[in-house]
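Troubleshooting: if your tokenizer reports a length mismatch, compare your output against this known-good record of 227 residues.
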Amino acid sequence: MNKFTALLIFSMFTSIAWAQPAGLELNFQRVRSGDRFVSDGNTTGTPYYHDQYHPGSIYLNDVLAASGILLKYNAHRDIFFAVTDQNTSDEDAQIVTKTQGMKILVNNEEFITLPSVDNRYEMQYYQVVTRGEKVTLLKKNYKLFVEGSRATTSLTRDVPSTYSDRSDFYLLSPSGDFTEVPSSTRKVLALFPEDKKALGGAIKKYSLNLKKEIDLIRFIGYYNRLK
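Known-good structure output:
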């Protein structure tokens, strides 16, 4: 059997279409020049969460729509590049069109689409950090870009352009409620009024710092295990 679950078809516009189950609409777009990273040799970091392409699968409403493709996430633009050959350049890649109910599995990580907290009409990718029956912890990955500058005198130096990692965390309930994790422990505990005492005790007992991702994961895991 061919390794591809979906059949790749190139149209006259070089867009990608996948043979998929009826009712599923998985579409791709051309890569624009601004979506690609072209290093000038003086830039620190990259816009990519995944610097390399990795095998991945795409689901729509929990139904497999495509597999056997190679994917790379541009966290600065919040887009996934898709190719079928590791040697394909980013210029010739395609962009996965975001749609509601989409799930992407790549490099042993899961990303889902949800509306932006600032604009419910704009879909964004959120990484699933940990799932639970009570609440799921999500992570919104960013790449902050700061443009560099040239030295203005002999006493100053060039400052390179920089991409740096940023992230926010969110809680997703089974009913679909979507809440950003506050920056303070007191405000986090306020989200769980019925279990505030038990959760506060766990933070103290295990010396959890909820500003650290690993401790936040432990905290949410503890909450999901509470009876």
